[in-house]
Amino acid sequence: MPKATNRRRKRGADEEDTGGGSANKRSATSVLTSLDVNDAPRPELPLFQLNGRHGGDEEEEEEEVTEGGGGGSSSALAVVAAAGSGQGPHQQRRLWVKDRSRAWWEQCSSADYPEADFRAAFRMGRATFAMLCDALGAAVAKEDTALRAAIPVRQRVAVCVWRLATGEPLRLVSKRFGLGISTCHKLVLEVCAAIRNLLMPRFLRWPDAAAADAFKARFQAESGVPGVVGAIYTTHIPIIAPKVSVAAYFNRRHTERNHKTSYSITLQGVVGPDGAFTDVCIGWPGSMPDDQVLDRSALQQRAAAGMMAGSWVVGGASFPLTDWVLAPYAQPNLTWAQHAFNEKVAELRRVAVDAFARLKGRWACLQKRTEVKLQDLPVVLGACCVLHNICESRGEEMDPGLRCEIADDETVPENPVRSDSARKARDDIAHNLLHSGLAGTKFF
């Protein structure tokens, strides 16, 4: 009997030890998962906590440890001495280093890689990519540590640009560049934030007085409509159904057209005559009509401060006619002058539509639901707009096959005319276009 009791006690102790180990694993898992869900910054956790997981989630947490590691065998252990004077085995930490192939990236970064293939992969030539790396180097560069060598700046920027250009899932990005999945995700957000902070003030800004006069002259020469400083358009970016305020992001028009439940956020942009964005407003829910997005934008605040006086921004039928927004006639039975005016407005608006078609064509991540969290998405979309402007300003040609057809539905605002003076100004412009022969027809 004493022996049986001892065996039972020993078996119970083993079960307690096993249960304790599982509790520790669950504790580490819950900490890491809760940080991911709450989007809080990840603290410096002991290596054994990151390595002590097994199963389907092991790879996700391993990436933070092996960010710069690409060499070595996956079965080998890099043994790192723990802090302290002791050197015993129980005072050492072990770091797994997973072997990942970087053959594709090394081939792309080689000097003999064809320029056409590089442009197809990154939507820009080597010269533009080098300029981008030089501009972002100080912001995204990291120093080597005792555990790993830092990922080079060129590779960091390439991960972000390729992810935006292709819209491929992070798991495929990881295989392409030989980095961890969570590492690739972190690099995309870091580079996009650097683009927004450093390059947006340089490449995406409202025109000053001299530039505005040049824009007006170019638009008037092409259409005959005076005072136009830009064309405005609002598109929708698909997203995964959010966990909060899901009804606000529900896109009824896309759902009815595609016969598939759709959620989206809005991207409003003003485009100059060269096809580059001069103003963007990103992130309002997809159920919000275009006129309400405009009312909540910084552009409306600029107009309220009197900074849009003497300038027109041309929009479609989904925008109201105001003292600074020039919208087409929406009523039926148009006169000859009104019909001709609408045709000219459609030509001007086409500048913005074409710019959005190239934007979505270059950066395919805008065409599909992304893995980026909703709160991080405006930064990513803003980076795409900046990269679009850089490519446009440097003459980067886009493959016509990449062009994305814009199919967003327009909604007529509840109050299509908000200013009597704007109504009269629109009538005068329509009359002058017709009688000066700029509307495509003449009186005989």
UniProtKB/TrEMBL annotation:
Matching Pfam families: DDE_Tnp_4
GO molecular function, one term: metal ion binding
Polar residues bias spans: 24-36
A Gene Ontology term for the protein's cellular component: nucleus
Compositional bias of kind Acidic residues: 57-66
Keyword tags: Hydrolase, Metal-binding, Nuclease, Nucleus
Cofactor: a divalent metal cation
UniProt key word Lipid metabolism: no
KW Metal-binding (keyword) present: yes
Domain (DDE Tnp4) ranges: 232-389
InterPro entries reported for this sequence: HARBI1-like, HARBI1_dom
Primary localization: nucleus
Ranges where the record places region Disordered: 1-73
Localization: Nucleus
Biased composition (Basic residues): 1-11
Family: Belongs to the HARBI1 family.
Name of the protein: DDE Tnp4 domain-containing protein
Origin organism lineage: Eukaryota, Viridiplantae, Streptophyta, Embryophyta, Tracheophyta
